Amino acid sequence: MPTDALLDSFLTGLAPLAPVAVWAHGSLAGGDYQEGRSDLDLIVVLDHPVTPRTVWRFALLHARLRNEPLADRLHCTCLDTADRGGRRAAPPHLGARAALRAAGHPGHPRRAAHLRPGPARGAARGRPAAGAGGELAAFVVRDQREFWRRAVDRAAHWTQDVWVDLGLLTFARATVTLREGRLISKREALDALPGLGAPGEVVEDIRRRRYDDPVPPAEEWIARRARLTRDYLGPAIDALVADPGFAPAAPSRPGPGARPRTPLLTRRRG
Question: DSSP assignment of the chain, as one string?
Fold first, then answer.
């Protein structure tokens, strides 16, 4: 399968960098991966500082794979473990989305909130990701307040499918994470949206485009969908981040012998 072949090539190319771990996240890790439609989201963890040469080697690896099937959907974020928590971002996010933010695409850095266990047709190696505790809640609140809430006020964004989809799905995932301490897939987020009061017409539009054969939308629907989405998301995000129960807590670290929140994803073949 193209996904397996691309991931094998990427992991082989990473070998000289001796990564501590490679984690899958997003749809690839969440059990909702659809070949040819979903992105291949990976996090590479190194145990040495990331230098300009390291960034160059990552960029070279992406360039070597650029003609492989699905290569335009391979996105890699690199972390180093110099602060012992594995949280320091290293080079900028590498891959096809590196330039999308400037083009009006919500392709900002990968969201740690969506790193999760689950079946993957890809690969992951090395140490599992430790539980984030209060840091995760703080991140989710900040992401909703500082990125998504501001984006709601930019009307032009919401005529694009990608903003409607990610805006609503990210809000549902953030809500479930804060209320229940769970990390959910996009499919689960889509199922949760009606119960969160999201406009049913828009939820069904997302479902149809994601899982069925999409029909090009009419201009009238695009405008109506944008209005419905913004009218819902603005107040919904305001209420979520204003809830005192979701105030950022002090960072917590797992004690000795604590079970990691995100277990190692095992590599599958065949």
Answer: -HHHHHHHHHHHHHGGG--SEEEEETHHHHT---TTTS-EEEEEEESS---HHHHHHHHHHHHHTTTSTTGGGEEEEEEE-TTSSS-EE-SPPEEGGGGTGGGT---PSPPGGG------SS--EESPBPP-THHHHHHHHHIIIIIIHHHHT-GGGGGSHHHHHHHHHHHHHHHHHHHH-----HHHHHHHGGGGT--HHHHHHHHHHHHS-PPPPPHHHHHHHHHHHHHHHHHHHHHHHH-GGGPPPPP----TTPPPSBPPPPP---
